[in-house]
Specification:
With 772 residues, the protein is mainly beta. It has a single domain (2-771), classed as Maltoporin, Chain A. 8% of the residues lie in helices and 51% in strands. The protein is built from nine helices and 39 strands. The chain has a 22-stranded antiparallel beta barrel. A hairpin with a 3-residue loop joins strand 10 (185-193) and strand 11. The protein is globular and about 75 Å long. It holds the Pfam family Plug. Keywords: Cell outer membrane, Ion transport, Iron, Iron transport, Membrane, Receptor, Signal, TonB box, Transmembrane, Transmembrane beta strand, Transport. Residues 1-28 form the signal peptide. This is TonB-dependent receptor. It is found in: Cell outer membrane.
Length: 772
Amino acid sequence: MTKMKQASRLLTCLLTTALAVPAMPAWAAAASPGGKTRAPGKARAVAAEALTVSHARTTAHGATVILGRQVLDQFVPGTSAAKMLSRLPGINFVSDDPLGTDSWGSALYMRGFTQQQLGFALDGIPLGAQDFRPYNGLMSTFAISPDNIAAMDVSQGAGALAMPSTTNLGGAVELRSVDPQMTRGGTVSQTFGSNQTYRTFVRLDTGVLNRSGTRMLVSYARADGRKWKGNGDQFDQQVNAKVVQPIAGAGRLTLFFDWNQTMQFAYADQSLAMLKALGTRNDYYWPYYNLAYLAAQGIYQPSLAGFSDAIDVSYYDGVTIAKDYLGGATLQLPLTDRLDWNTVLYGHGQRQWQTWTSPYTPSPNGAPLSEQVIEPRTQRYGFTSALDYQLGINRIEGGLWYENDHYISDEFQYPEPLLGQGEPLDAVNGRFGTPFQENWGMDYWSNTVQTHLQDTIRPTRNLVFNLGFRSLVVTTRGGGVANDVAYNGQETLPYGTLTAANGFLPDFRADWHFLRHHELYLDITKNMRGYGMSGYQLGSAWGVSSQQTFEALKRTIQPETDWVYDLGYRYSGRLLQGSLNLYHVDFSNRLQSLTAGTIIQPISTVINVGGVTMNGLDAALTLTPLRGLAITNSVSYNHAVYDNNITTQGTTYFLKGQQVVNYPRVMYKSNVTYNFHDAQIHFDAAYTSRRNFSYVGDMSVPGFWMASLGARYRFGDYRFLKNITVDFNVYNLFNSSYVSQMGENGNPLSGDYQSVLVGAPRQYFGTISTRF
């Protein structure tokens, strides 16, 4: 931890050094915000870049909704992009921390689809499955500082046809990074909050450096704080850099770089029985090693007397450390006045350490505890390339995406000391010594090829049709390369090849502005998801118990597919804005990870639970009755049920007709924002209905209300400081007690399991920011 903080102080010094640049040439003042003039056939895309959001409203075209900075700025700086998406109807975000940055304890759901079933990209760079252990990407929070997000394009229906994603079944999110400013300057913000939260953000813009228009930015963000219960730090630091080089006026080359380092003490997983018997404040024992040591010997605290599962409430610690590097180069080049070429090259590397102190595996020295460490590593490289041709009323676009992904995941066991004979292992510094056993090792190579072709037809000014399809092939070979037979009870671990392929995934869209302020749109698409990879017994086809089970699974397993139908209407007037979405999804071959055993030594099985039928609606209405006042209310209804019962190990489980796990059937959201001169105040309230915890629905968590409050005042300029602003936010205003994350360790078929986390109580945050 000390070295992390020393490194962060050094970076702060480097980033606060002033940058000298030449004066901006006269032509630059007339350039568009993206540094590119409008090319033929790009009117819609350029319009999207220029959209602004007044009164903290969203902007939309077709089935895509755009969240701009005026919406994102209502959240506490450093809030995860996934949490900021929760402003939209149909999206459910849950987290055990107020800012949604805990990678283990947070999850995003969109119209019944999990974050592992959505498509995510940053400036065209695929971010892969938004998993805690991302086998083919990285979580959006680790990819870009939230302060550097210019906007997010959200398609909750069919998703974007050209989205480079192997996981996009029911929606897509494209994050767009801010461009460097045309003039030299910078931004500084400082946030303070509950639990010793301290976050600093600094961004420097060079302005235009030369006559060719080169400009760049570099930013550094550092966040530190304590957990809201138990003990332990939450630390993160991140560097972003971006270079924009205009080419011949209309084209441009963009370079983007991200480095992120995160250290998070996790919150202890609970079962519903634990919450009922022990309350919401139970957590890991860290830093009290003696208490965990005694518990491993069966000597528990008085509060656990008589509790049937006391050992699983008595873990010492759980820590996650992650380091990421992400780089991308984007070339946007008009080849003629009708033909454009867009290409993205990217590379990404990540290494993680995830630790738990296990009371189930003693150390060779006689200590009843040992440190269990999972070490996932990812290296991936790829490119996308597309041509866009304007031919009369037709805009024809086709492209290719290729990615090579190498994913490794190993689990080691390290010795802990005897009580009173040394310090326990410090999970923060990542130096564990020499393991006394390797429980398992998994190694995968994956190749992805996706092509797409679409024609955008505009027969009249207010009517647009999109016809297209994509082809997707994902081939993965790998599995177990290391195995402790005594630990796993298996002679060999699963190893082999799986391919998910579909040559024709059609897509049809229509967008009709039939009257002034009125819009009607329709999306129909078929999607497929590739097979995920994981460590042993951690929720993928390769994570099943044995090679024999894997071979049997290969004969029957099929990739998840679905048909998505989305019909929407939108009215956009000065005093009233409203939308209504009706959607239907036929989901085939839904693969679920069924989990039993302990969270330290899980027994996980991937099973096809059959089809899921989903019908739902999202409705939103915004009123602007007074200058500066906007009142938004939305309601979402989702009837997503399993189509089949399943039989496993001779037992039939009656899933048919049950709502899918972890996602509510009803959500209500309200936002009131009022601007008066330089002041703004906003109030948010949301209701989340009951959610099924077990697949058969015999265990569920009740619905809950959540409210937050925020205020902002702009003091204006003082000498060289511009737009001095103070923000104040209260999270969980009424101090609600509720279950947030569910299923982080998997969901049980029936009954209870240690796989829920509670949300944070009321928290306060204040921020002062300025530009210069």
